[in-house]
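Subject: Sanity check before I submit

Could someone independently write out the structure tokens for this chain? I want to compare against mine line by line before I put it in a report. The sequence has 108 residues.
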Amino acid sequence: MLSIILQAAAPQGGGMMQMVFLVAIIVVFYLFMIRPQMKKQKTERNFRETLEKGAKVVTIGGLHGRIVEVSDRTFLIEVDSNVKVRVEKSAISADATKSLDQPPSTAK
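---
Independent answer below. Compare away.
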């Protein structure tokens, strides 16, 4: 009687299914979470590396300005006439050339 209970309690082939399920979860996590984040970081890094003097940018803090000087780790940004701010390259969030050149749209 005891051997029948032990045989019924032991899973048969469940270990392999658990391993397959675990691998499937890891693959899905990689495809939907890790890979897109790595791609986004790569495009942001390439964007910051290609910025040149004269480009209009927006910082993470919301400052709009034009790049006056480029160094290894920083940009010197002219925010207003004779107002310059030095920011880290990682603080640049967007290229504002198109948005600054266009007049503001009036919402109706």
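---
OP: Matches mine. For the report I'm noting this point. The two ends are 81 Å apart (CA to CA).
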